[in-house]
Design goal:
single chain; elongated; about 450 residues; 2 domains
Length: about 450
């Protein structure tokens, strides 16, 4: 009865731990989409870009304000003191007067012609387009950063597993070599060589463990969530060249859709209008002006108080003549910045063209390396099996197994690297063409298990 009761208690504790405290037993395995959604909510770079976009949208309203009427109200109170010492005018009597004056009113200015204000509206529209392109670039940059960080964690996990497997294989060989040398069945150099290689791989394992932790921290930095166990790539993933399978088409797509190019073009448009806006400071401005004022004085220089209402309506023309060369200097400055931005368009366009060619070739290269290294791994496994049989039969020495083992794991690492390079190259190619979207994240996520 006691034994049965103990088993029931143990079973109850296990069920309670599994159901109530699942995090203590198994951590949920997360995929790429989970970390991307977390990054959307938490990445400070994207959030900063969103706030900057909101701020830039105010520029159009501010530009329109230069075309709209300006209305001001005023109110004043004055304490006046007058001392007429002598006067030949009979209106002004000698003596002192102390009185108060109150006045209030309003003034309206409606721009009729201000060329610089019209240009400011056109300029602000280009600023809005630039701001939208910058926000879209921040979104696509985030997608690429999350994929790169996630794939880096994958790469370090796979590399650590391969290094640990190699370490286990070398440890087993070292134990056999030590036993054989102790019995006089193998030369001492077999033992020393296997010991040296084991030490190197053990050191490599420590380096890879550090790199794995750092890769997880990099992903956490973007997503603001701790990185635990993640889903890994399937054994077989489709490796198809990016369509269209033509570098010239990708170059054209990059020139048309690259967001850095778009941003720089809009920036150049803003600079071009800015040059014209500075030149417009030479032009006259015409405003409709109107004002109303009411004044209540308890006394005056003439003697006696008064209540006065004044209405004014007119047209004001202002023609700039000379401002110390300020307008000319600002125009030259704007023209130089405009030229610099035009050269910036050429620069980023060439960069986009080069990256498109390079990344398209890198994807094709990754596919070829993947196929080649897959065959190399299969062939090297046969080589290792043959050499192990040769050592057992006494026809080969133990060093042959060491060489074959290390070559096998080298090929495995290159095989894994080719898979990762294919995924990253495809994402970077679409990014440089301005085509990267959440659908691409979802397609990569489907390759995980």
């Amino acid at each position: 009865m006691c034994r049965l009761s103990g088993r029931c208690i143990a079973l109850t504790l296990v069920i309670f731990t599994w159901c109530v405290l699942p995090g203590t037993v198994r951590a949920e395995v997360q995929d790429l989409m989970f970390y991307y959604k977390a990054a959307l909510a938490n990445d400070p770079t994207l959030r900063s870009a969103q706030f900057e976009n909101q701020a830039n949208k105010e520029s159009l309203q501010q530009a329109y304000a230069g075309l709209l009427p300006q209305v001001n109200a005023f109110l004043s109170y004055n304490k006046n003191y007058q001392d007429v010492i002598s006067s030949e005018n009979t209106v002004y009597e000698e003596g002192t007067a102390d009185y108060e004056t109150e006045s209030y009113g309003a003034a309206l200015t409606q721009p009729i012609f201000r060329y610089s204000s019209f240009l400011a509206v056109s300029q602000s529209k280009s600023v809005l387009k630039q701001a939208d392109s910058e926000l879209e670039k921040a979104r696509q940059d985030l997608m690429l950063r999350v994929v790169e960080a996630y794939v880096e964690v994958l790469a370090m996990q796979e590399k650590l597993a391969e290094v640990m497997a190699e370490e286990a294989a070398l440890t087993s060989h070292y134990e056999r070599a030590r036993e054989r040398t102790d019995r006089g069945l193998a030369p001492i150099m077999d033992r020393y060589d296997s010991e040296a290689r084991l030490a190197v791989v053990t050191a490599q394992r420590g380096e890879v463990e550090f790199a794995l932790n750092d890769a997880k921290e990099a992903l956490t930095e973007i997503c603001a969530v701790p990185v635990g166990e993640i889903k890994v790539l399937q054994e077989e993933i489709p490796l198809e060249p990016p369509l269209p399978d033509n570098a010239a088409n990708w170059v054209d797509a990059a020139v048309e859709g690259n967001l850095d190019v778009s941003i720089q073009k809009y920036k150049s448009e803003v600079s071009e209008v800015e040059t014209r806006r500075q030149q417009a400071a030479h032009y006259p401005t015409v405003d409709l002006v109107a004002d109303y004022a009411w004044q209540d004085a308890t006394d005056s220089f003439y003697g006696g108080g008064s209540n006065t209402a004044v209405y004014n309506v007119g047209v004001k023309l202002l023609l700039p003549l000379y401002e110390g060369g300020l307008t000319v200097s600002k125009t030259r400055e704007a023209a130089s910045l405009e030229a610099a931005d035009r050269e910036g368009v050429v620069k980023v366009t060439r960069e986009a063209e080069r990256k498109a060619r390079s990344l398209q070739n890198s994807v094709l290269s990754a596919i070829n390396r993947f196929m080649a290294m897959k065959k190399s791994v299969e062939a090297q496994q046969l080589v290792l099996s043959a050499k192990e049989e040769g050592v057992r039969s006494g026809m080969m020495i133990g060093l042959a197994i060491l060489d074959a083992t290390q070559d096998l794991y080298k090929y495995k690492r290159e095989y894994s690297q080719a898979r990762h390079d294919f995924i990253l190259g495809t994402m970077r190619l679409r990014h440089v063409a301005g085509m990267l979207g959440e659908g691409d994240i979802a397609r990569v996520n489907e390759l995980l298990r």
